[in-house]
Design a protein that fits this description.
With about 100 residues, the protein is α+β, with helices and mostly antiparallel strands. It contains three helices and three strands, in the order αββαβα. A three-stranded mixed β-sheet has the order 1-2-3, with helices on one face. Pfam families: FeS_assembly_P (PF01883).
Length: about 100
Protein backbone atom coordinates (compact mmCIF):
# COMPACT_ATOMS: atom_id res chain seq x y z
CA UNK A 1 0.00 0.00 0.00
CA UNK A 2 2.83 2.40 0.94
CA UNK A 3 4.55 1.74 -2.40
CA UNK A 4 1.28 2.44 -4.20
CA UNK A 5 1.03 5.89 -2.57
CA UNK A 6 4.68 6.65 -3.32
CA UNK A 7 4.14 5.66 -6.95
CA UNK A 8 1.01 7.83 -7.16
CA UNK A 9 2.88 10.79 -5.68
CA UNK A 10 5.71 10.22 -8.16
CA UNK A 11 3.22 10.08 -11.05
CA UNK A 12 1.62 13.32 -9.80
CA UNK A 13 5.02 15.05 -9.63
CA UNK A 14 5.72 13.87 -13.19
CA UNK A 15 2.46 15.51 -14.31
CA UNK A 16 3.15 18.68 -12.31
CA UNK A 17 6.40 19.00 -14.25
CA UNK A 18 4.28 19.49 -17.41
CA UNK A 19 2.48 22.55 -15.95
CA UNK A 20 4.02 25.91 -16.82
CA UNK A 21 3.41 29.48 -15.81
CA UNK A 22 2.71 30.98 -19.27
CA UNK A 23 5.17 33.80 -18.55
CA UNK A 24 8.08 31.64 -17.35
CA UNK A 25 9.72 28.86 -19.42
CA UNK A 26 10.12 26.56 -16.37
CA UNK A 27 7.59 24.10 -14.94
CA UNK A 28 5.85 24.93 -11.66
CA UNK A 29 7.51 22.03 -9.80
CA UNK A 30 11.05 23.15 -10.62
CA UNK A 31 10.04 26.75 -9.87
CA UNK A 32 9.34 25.57 -6.32
CA UNK A 33 5.65 26.50 -6.43
CA UNK A 34 4.50 23.09 -5.15
CA UNK A 35 4.67 22.92 -1.36
CA UNK A 36 2.86 19.64 -0.68
CA UNK A 37 1.41 16.66 -2.55
CA UNK A 38 -0.91 14.41 -0.55
CA UNK A 39 -2.90 11.43 -1.74
CA UNK A 40 -5.87 10.18 0.26
CA UNK A 41 -7.02 6.56 0.32
CA UNK A 42 -10.11 7.58 -1.66
CA UNK A 43 -8.01 8.60 -4.69
CA UNK A 44 -8.21 12.30 -3.90
CA UNK A 45 -5.08 14.37 -4.36
CA UNK A 46 -4.48 17.53 -2.37
CA UNK A 47 -1.93 19.92 -3.80
CA UNK A 48 -0.72 22.85 -1.72
CA UNK A 49 1.02 25.40 -3.88
CA UNK A 50 1.83 29.05 -4.25
CA UNK A 51 2.25 31.50 -7.12
CA UNK A 52 5.22 33.67 -8.01
CA UNK A 53 3.10 36.71 -7.09
CA UNK A 54 -0.24 37.13 -5.26
CA UNK A 55 -1.74 38.96 -8.25
CA UNK A 56 -0.46 36.43 -10.82
CA UNK A 57 -2.62 36.98 -13.94
CA UNK A 58 -2.26 33.29 -14.88
CA UNK A 59 -3.43 31.93 -11.50
CA UNK A 60 -6.75 30.49 -12.74
CA UNK A 61 -5.07 28.97 -15.80
CA UNK A 62 -2.32 27.34 -13.71
CA UNK A 63 -4.73 25.95 -11.07
CA UNK A 64 -7.03 24.53 -13.76
CA UNK A 65 -4.04 22.98 -15.56
CA UNK A 66 -2.86 21.38 -12.28
CA UNK A 67 -6.34 19.91 -11.64
CA UNK A 68 -6.73 18.53 -15.17
CA UNK A 69 -3.26 16.99 -15.28
CA UNK A 70 -3.32 15.51 -11.76
CA UNK A 71 -6.81 14.06 -12.36
CA UNK A 72 -5.42 12.38 -15.49
CA UNK A 73 -3.08 10.28 -13.30
CA UNK A 74 -4.32 6.70 -13.06
CA UNK A 75 -5.68 6.15 -9.54
CA UNK A 76 -6.59 9.79 -8.92
CA UNK A 77 -10.31 10.56 -8.92
CA UNK A 78 -10.27 14.21 -7.81
CA UNK A 79 -7.70 16.93 -7.27
CA UNK A 80 -8.02 19.79 -4.81
CA UNK A 81 -5.64 22.74 -5.11
CA UNK A 82 -4.98 24.99 -2.14
CA UNK A 83 -3.18 28.26 -2.89
CA UNK A 84 -1.12 29.69 -0.05
CA UNK A 85 1.30 32.57 0.29
CA UNK A 86 2.85 31.22 3.50
CA UNK A 87 5.75 30.99 3.10
CA UNK A 88 5.99 33.57 0.36
CA UNK A 89 7.70 32.22 -2.76
CA UNK A 90 11.22 33.40 -3.57
CA UNK A 91 13.89 32.48 -6.10
CA UNK A 92 15.75 30.28 -3.57
CA UNK A 93 12.90 27.76 -3.88
CA UNK A 94 13.75 27.01 -7.52
CA UNK A 95 15.62 23.85 -8.50
CA UNK A 96 19.15 24.16 -9.87
CA UNK A 97 17.73 23.41 -13.35
CA UNK A 98 15.23 26.25 -13.08
CA UNK A 99 17.90 28.71 -11.90
CA UNK A 100 20.11 27.65 -14.79
CA UNK A 101 17.26 27.93 -17.32
CA UNK A 102 16.40 31.44 -16.13
CA UNK A 103 20.02 32.57 -16.00
CA UNK A 104 20.34 32.86 -12.20
CA UNK A 105 23.39 30.59 -12.09
Amino acid sequence: MENEFLQLEEDIVTMLKTVYDPEIPVNIFDLGLIYKVEVGENGEANITMTLTAPNCPAADFIVEDVKIKVESVRGIKKCHVDITFEPEWNQDMMSEEAKLELGFL
